[in-house]
From TrEMBL:
Signal peptide: none annotated. It comes from the Bacteria. GO terms for molecular function: oxidoreductase activity. It comes from Paracoccus saliphilus. This is NAD(P)-dependent dehydrogenase, short-chain alcohol dehydrogenase family. InterPro entries: NAD(P)-bd_dom_sf, Sc_DH/Rdtase_CS, SDR_fam. Gene3D superfamilies: NAD(P)-binding Rossmann-like Domain.
Length: 255
């Protein structure tokens, strides 16, 4: 599918990978709705990209529906390109030394990362299914989710985060299969370590140790490289129902 002339919506677009994606889609000629928990952050990115910025919690179905409705009204139609980047990074051992079980954190992580992604996908699919097909294949749109390499090689302390991302990877194929009859593709990107505010808090020694494990290139990814993969997924009509790792061939160690 072409980017130019289409409408896009990026959740988590106020920061990091989502902001880079919003910028790239805008440069490619899409009208972009930037959605983030912080309306201020979304509006700041939208002021660069020329689209609109909206505040919404992706795990709140009513807020997501309102954001899609607002975007459609402001940009002239439902988005055909939807990218879910909203998410939280959490870390806790199952059995922390203080003895307090972090079950509430597990629930919150699944709520934002997995339920939030599913909610955006559901609302996006409903809106896209009502659009006219674009080409002889019958393509109506593409939805790109964001997992993490932790979905396959989660480290100690990542049980909740890895489970939330594993859920996203696992729903990719059944979603693609179900939405195929509407001409909607569903893909997931599993990033390794990227330079964003989410990873900025890593202690320097942890960061150096992680970078040393990256076979090639031995550096953190740039958000623009994630955004480039989103563009490539949108543009290649045969990519569907798959989770792609973008990670310098890293396989994370247990800790
Ligand atoms: P980021 O810079 O923190 O951006 C994530 C954005 O999502 C933030 O603006 C955040 O807002 C927003 N957000 C959080 N909860 C939300 C909610 N409930 N509703 C709407 N927006 C919400 O992080 P990033 O590094 O770009 O991460 C983007 C995605 O990539 C995440 O799903 C993350 O798990 C995944 N990922 C990142 C890396 C990495 O190395 N950076 C690696 C693997 C996977 P607040 O800042 O206000 O919380």
């Amino acid at each position: 599918m072409k980017i130019e002339g289409n409408i896009a919506l990026v959740s988590g677009g106020g920061s990091g990978l989502g902001a880079a994606t919003a910028r790239r889609l805008a440069v490619g000629g899409a009208r972009v709705a930037v959605v983030d928990l912080s309306k201020e952050a979304a509006v700041a990115v939208a002021s660069e990209t020329g689209g609109i910025g909206l505040g919404a919690d992706v795990s709140d179905a009513a807020a997501v529906e309102a954001a899609f409705a607002h975007a459609a009204e402001a940009l002239g139609g439902a988005p055909r390109i939807v990218v879910s980047c909203a998410g939280i990074g959490t870390a806790a051992r199952i059995l922390p030394r203080d003895g307090a079980l972090p079950i509430a954190l597990f629930e919150r992580t699944l709520h934002v990362n997995l339920l939030g992604t599913y909610t955006v996908l559901s609302v996006a699919a409903k809106a896209m299914a009502a659009l006219e097909p674009l080409d002889t294949d019958g393509a109506r749109g593409v939805i790109v989710n964001t997992a993490s390499v932790a979905y396959q090689d989660g480290q100690i302390g990542q049980a909740a985060y890895a489970a939330s991302k594993g859920g996203i990877a696992s729903l990719t194929l059944p979603a693609a299969r179900e939405l195929a009859r509407f001409g909607i593709r569903v893909m997931t990107i599993a990033p390794g370590l990227f330079e964003t505010p989410m990873s900025a808090d890593l202690p320097p020694e942890t960061r150096a140790a992680l970078e040393a494990e990256l076979p090639f290139p031995s550096r953190m990814g740039k958000p623009e490289e994630y955004a480039l993969l989103v563009q490539q997924i949108v543009e290649n009509p045969l990519l569907n129902g798959e989770t792609i790792r973008i990670d310098s061939a890293v396989r994370l160690a247990p800790k």
